[in-house]
Amino acid sequence: MSRSQLLAMARRNLAHVKAGTVDQAADVYRVPAVNYHDPDRWNLEMKRIFKRLPLLLGFSCEMREVGSYRSVLVADIPILLTRVQDGSLRAFLNVCSHRGSVIVPEGSGRGTRFACPYHAWTYDNEGALRSVFKEEDFGQVDKSELGLTPLPVAERAGLVFVIPTPEASLEIDTFLCGYDELLAHHGFEDCELVGRQVLTGPNWKIAYDGYLDFYHLPILHRETFGPDMQSDSLFDAWGPHQRVSMPNSEYLEFEDLPDEDWELEEVLGGVWTIFPHVSIADFDAGGKLYLVSQLFPGPGPEESTTIQNFLATSKPDAAQRELIDEQMEFLRHVVQDEDYATGNRIQKAVKTGAKSEVLFGRNEGGGQSFHRWVERFLEADDDALPGLFSTGEGGVSDKRDV
Question: Is the pTM of this model over 0.85?
Fold first, then answer.
């Protein structure tokens, strides 16, 4: 089924190439400028989006072995991911049951025991409290009731998703709407994590708008990607998740081939986004190099943090390592010094009240869909949350105009 979907998207792309058309939304969409800086709205976004939806927090390939772990901080919530003896992943709030200390510092490693740095209460990697320092002096406690607090966690397509709220009820398969079947063709589970770097930016939505927007490529990035970059976009959606691609004239050489002769590698391009905070793109660095960007809100509505993760399809040799390092520095510059520098100026400008709204054109259907989904999640209570995904609405109309 996923192969047929990819080929259907490729043939739709080809039809646009031949007709000279692009995807068009029904109308221009308006977003109140205050949405990018209002503290009350930001707090609601944290509560109803980032604390109750699955977030991509890691990769299967970086935690292959039993005992491997990753400690992360997400919207000020410390989270610990560990691979346990049966091969599954577990996720916990990284908070000691004694006095609330963070147990494992941010980072990755191997270990099956985690001792709190404050009073040495020790937990195993399945979350059970195993020892209390000087228990005979502390007093009797039931250690079975004082383990780490578990969080919902799931692996799909080599990606690790966690809901940072205990006992959250949203199922990962409901959330992904079948999108993981398409993502699986990238082969992330067989990749090598070859680098990470952290960038700072404006409000998370200003930052994220850029990942869904090819309209700016030949303008803002004319000195880096070049002025000949296409600005045309095609959009495909699975619930709130989207793939943004360009009309690709190279598909013309496959036009008369039967579907079984199309190579999937040829039709996987574009930017694949996972709502509300992930962008996936691939680049050449002596071999395919994936950039998986995790975008998280900062400590307030005017800040965000982006983790750029780099995954290579094979373990790099010394020559490829040099190319990867060069590509990492290039992409740091493009995003930090071009995209986010512009976003920071937007952040300051919208606060002046000079404009009451920002606009998303008919050719910016990805951004339109993103903001519509933000509104849906803010309006939906917990009981209504699963029902949002049944529509499959992507925000782009069936009308495809020039």
Answer: yes
